[in-house]
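Annotated sample (chain length 290).
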Amino acid sequence: MRVVILGSMNAWHVETLKRAFEDRGAVVGVVRTRDMKVKIKENEVVCSGDTDLGDADMVVVRSLPGGSLEQVIYRVDMLHVLEEIKGIRVINSPKALERTVNKMYTTALFSKAGLLVPETHIAERYDDAMKAFEVLGGDVVVKPLFGSEGRGMTRVTDSETAHRVFMALNQCRYVYYLQKFIPHSGMDIRTFVIKGHVVAAMERHASDWRCNVALGAQVKPLIPDQNIIDLSVKAANAVGAIYAGVDILPAKDGQLYLLEVNGIPGWRGLQQTTCLNIASIIVDFLLGDM
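Output written by the structure step:
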């Protein structure tokens, strides 16, 4: 079994996955996503990095960095080439990654699947964004269309602030992604789903409205009830993810809102709340399908 992990050699998640694969007898190589290259000649397609990708049995994507539009499309299409032309299993699949990196795409898929999401408006024009702000009750969360870990999110609660924020976004040619603010108690839930099973879950408690570990939220273990389990599995299935981190917001009115599914999920914070070795569980599930 030969496995290639796309990511940085010294990254915590890459190293823990690498050890788990090697403990099970796999030969593991690590390639930075931006180092991938392809050579096409006659009827031959060769994909490589610091190591040959073409003879891998599995490629696990742990990094899909930003860049120019051309660079991002190239990197995702390279994953399509590995999967569709070279016949290599890519985890998560490029289709699932395309669905989860774009919040608009993800949210639309949740809605289609009948899952409860905050009312969301997406537009390119400043005037449309200001109108959406009013329609959503003048209390919204503005998020980058691409991004994770709570970075770039802003809560806007008055028209003057909305004007300044939206004008700044307009000057940088960003897309406006606005969600109605859902009152909550300063806690949300992260579940970790692998092949239709919730293998771990935690509560994230914050001093403000953003409950992200990367922004300082405190974690505690959670034994999820069946409602949370069902919602998590349906969310991962909606985007076609083999493994995923699912963010759920318990509102003050008791409803569970689905916020996001991460197709390249981190579990460092979650690992602090469980005695289970999450990397080993991921690897066992993946190798069980080979």
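Annotation: The chain is about 35% helix and 25% strand.
Annotation: The domain at 2-91 is CATH 3.40.50.20 (Rossmann fold).
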